[in-house]
């Protein structure tokens, strides 16, 4: 991250006792060019009832990201054309990754059960098989 804070304070002039102060932050900005995700209605119920989660908003060009930060539920809308600081962009990407990992676990939590059943079927299978090349 490239941040700098500068303050310029002019000493008092004569009896006027006025000073001038300028504060500025310089941060890298990211412009959001395109957003894509699954629609809320296309996601598993277990996923949409928990956090973190991300899905398309009602608007076609807007994402909704819901996550827990310091014990508080945060909702962030990300739209095409938004300008986001580097710090916020990195934070949003981390939350999106966590939401994606959570969705992956939900979608694949029954894979081991299916694999076990297939292995049982393979062990119990009898018959002949011919392979021709």
**Broad structural category:** alpha+beta
Number of H- or I-type helical stretches = 3
User: What integer value in Å does the Rg equal?
Assistant: 27 Å
Q: Give the tally of β-strands.
A: 7
Overall helicity: 25-40%
Mean pLDDT: 79
Strand content: 25-35%
Strand order of the largest sheet: 4-5-6
Order of helices and strands: EEEHEEEEHH
Low-confidence segments, ≥5 residues, pLDDT <50? 1-9
Largest sheet: 3 strands, antiparallel
What separation lies between the terminal Cα atoms?
A: 59 Å
Features:
alpha+beta, 133 residues, elongated, single chain, two-stranded antiparallel ribbon, 3 helices
Q: How would you describe the overall organization of this protein?
A:
- The chain is of the alpha+beta class.
- The chain has a domain at 28-110.
- The chain is 31% helix and 27% strand.
- It has a three-stranded antiparallel sheet, covered by helices on one side.
- The relative contact order is 0.14.
Summarize the model shown.
With 133 residues, this protein is of the alpha+beta class. 31% of the residues lie in helices and 27% in strands.
Write the SSE topology.
Blueprint: E1 5-9, E2 21-25, E3 29-31, H1 45-48, E4 53-56, E5 62-69, E6 72-79, E7 83-85, H2 86-108, H3 111-124
Antiparallel strand pairs: 1-2, 3-7, 4-5, 5-6
């Amino acid at each position: 991250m490239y941040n700098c804070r500068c303050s310029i304070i002019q000493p008092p002039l004569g009896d006027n006792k006025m000073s001038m102060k300028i504060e500025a932050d310089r941060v890298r900005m990211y412009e959001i060019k395109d957003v894509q995700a699954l629609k809320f209605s296309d996601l598993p119920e277990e996923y949409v009832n928990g956090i973190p989660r991300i899905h398309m908003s009602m608007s076609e060009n807007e994402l909704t990201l819901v996550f827990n930060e310091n014990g508080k539920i945060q909702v962030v809308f990300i739209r095409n054309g938004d300008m986001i600081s580097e710090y916020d962009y990195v934070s949003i990407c981390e939350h999106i990754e966590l939401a994606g990992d959570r969705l992956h676990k939900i979608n694949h939590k029954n894979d081991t059960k299916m694999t076990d059943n297939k292995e049982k079927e393979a062990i119990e299978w009898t018959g002949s098989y011919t392979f021709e090349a």
